[in-house]
Amino acid sequence: MYESMRGFPTSLFGELDRLQREFDDMFGFSGRPAGIRSVAPGTYPAINIGNTPTSVEIYAFAPGVDASKIEITLDRGVLTLSGERPNDLPDTNDKVSVYSRERLGGSFRRVVNVPDDVDPEHVNATYRDGVLRISLARHEPAQPKRITVQ
Amino acid sequence: MNEVQAADTRQDLTGNTSQDTRALLPRVDVLEDDAGITLLADLPGVPKDHLELKVEGDALVIEGSMAPFTPDTLEPVHAEVRLPRYRRSFTLSRELDASRIEANLKDGVLTLRIPKQAHAQPRRISVQVR
Questions:
Q1: What is the CATH number for A112?
Q2: What residue of B is the nearest CA neighbor of A39?
Q3: Which residues contact B68 (CB under 8 A, 6 or more apart)?
Q4: Is B93 in the A-facing interface, judged by CB distances under 8 Å?
Q5: What is the pLDDT of residues A32-59, one digit of tens each?
Q6: Which of A20, A46, A102 sits opposite B29 (nearest CB)?
Q7: Is the pLDDT reported for residue B121 higher than 70?
Q8: Min CA distance, A147 vs chain B (Å)?
């Protein structure tokens, strides 16, 4: 009866991308070698990593988490973030029909390799609007020295 | 994490492509009870002022864009989330009262409550026995 709730106006490309995503979820990956600690695509939370000249920035897209319960540890070049996303659905009972359960949650752990020049004393983490941002400062690089020719 | 929902970015006759408005399709949970429908959507990165909820005819459109949170000098190394916006739409059936939708956005989780029209709530019909 509520089929129409699930249907939505979509273009052909949207459907092909959805098919691709479901295929990838089942059969993984593109064949290129993956990091030894990498996880299946679509794992919660998704992570983006980037570099600035002075830091390494890690963004974890983790909505619905209690920030005080997230654990972040840095050990020998490996940053681990773990926590739990509690189930936030309203109580279900006989009178509730569930049409769609797509959101991911539960216990999670993700691991990121960070380069050697990261300074473990200067790591900063903030959580806002469901995104956990971890900023790791790099050690000051050695100043290039100019050598004059006698 | 999410698939891409492409907008129609075809070229028009002069060869100009329209602006890239591709968006991620957010994951949702949808539940129904006697009084209405509850929809929960994961929209990490979207603050309240970047969220748009529209009802156009019988379609409910959820759109959210992420507030910029990356430094200008950032060079991406690994990106599992590649677009800064979400979009998803649903057709609402007629017994849902779109004018009384309640929405709550916290920590990237959008909770919508769409009640049914008052007269559409289930009524128990008693059987007269003669």
A1: 2.60.40.790
A2: B80
A3: B84
A4: yes
A5: 556 666 666 678 899 999 999 889 999 9
A6: A102
A7: no
A8: 30
